[in-house]
Specification:
Elements lengths: L1 H26 L5 H23 L3 H31 L9 H6 L8 E7 L8 E4 L3 E4 L5 E8 L6 E10 L7 E6 L5 E3 L4 E10 L9 E10 L1 H11 L1
Parallel strand pairs: 1-9
Antiparallel strand pairs: 1-3, 2-4, 4-8, 5-7, 5-9, 6-8
Helix pairs in contact: 1-2, 2-3
């Protein structure tokens, strides 16, 4: 009786997964290819789990297989979940939006918000790094541009990754980056310097009581990490 109930639950799970996946695909036809692949992978793992539950008779083997494929489905699910998390919090520079999306909302000329630009210094990173502007006054919905100056004063080529943070934290979801150097690693040779561009706008839905936002960047030396990954793939 218990086994029959378990099989029914697995079957209902498969039906629900197929319905949910079909809904997402049809509702969001512009879904990225990698997100579609993740969806198909999750659905495949669920299907395998159903087949194992129905046809594998040995309890230990069945439980091991279910655990393996269940962990695989969870691992694939982390990709879209991470994207949702980044879109909500604004962490890791995931708010990459188009200029069309920025300008279509219109500009709220009745409001002004001060955006401050700071640098959190990392003692392990020898680069010179500072903002071009200490602050800008912008209207919600208005495209704004600024830059950060970075210089590698060392005698070796280095790779850096900038990580942003926004305060107050509740303003993160309304701070939309159109272009940002934090979207990828920055490579500078010995003595080389560069002006790193940043384009952004504030969503018109920004709460009225938020009149000042601080955007701070911390840069990290990822030279050794990238080199190790590169050699590991060779």
């Amino acid at each position: 009786m218990v086994k029959q109930r378990v099989k029914i639950i697995f079957l209902l799970t498969l039906i629900f997964s197929i319905m949910a996946f079909t809904y997402v695909i049809t509702t969001y036809p512009s879904l990225k290819a990698n997100d579609r692949f993740v969806g198909y992978a999750i659905l495949f793992n669920v299907l395998i789990c159903i087949l194992i539950a129905f046809f594998v008779q040995q309890k230990l083997l069945r439980n091991m297989c279910l655990t393996i494929f269940g962990m695989g489905a969870f691992a694939f699910a982390l990709v879209p979940l991470y994207d949702v998390f980044c879109e909500t919090t604004g962490l890791n520079g995931k708010l990459d939006l188009s200029v069309k999306a920025a300008t279509s909302q219109g500009v709220d000329l009745s409001r002004q918000v001060t955006v401050e630009f700071l640098v959190n210094h990392n003692n392990q990173m020898p680069w010179e790094f500072r903002p071009k502007n200490n602050a800008l006054i912008v209207h919600p919905g208005e495209l704004a541009s600024t830059a950060y100056y970075a210089k590698n004063p060392t005698s070796r080529t280095m790779l850096a990754q900038a990580v942003p943070s926004i305060s107050p934290s509740r303003a993160s979801r309304y701070f939309k980056k159109v272009e940002c150097f934090c979207f990828s690693q920055q490579k500078l040779g010995p003595g080389e310097f560069v002006h790193l561009g940043l384009r952004f706008y504030l969503s018109s839905d920004l709460p009225k009581d938020v009149q000042r936002i601080t955007l701070a960047y911390t840069i990290f030396d990822v030279t050794n990490t990238i080199m190790q990954e590169t050699h590991g793939h060779e």
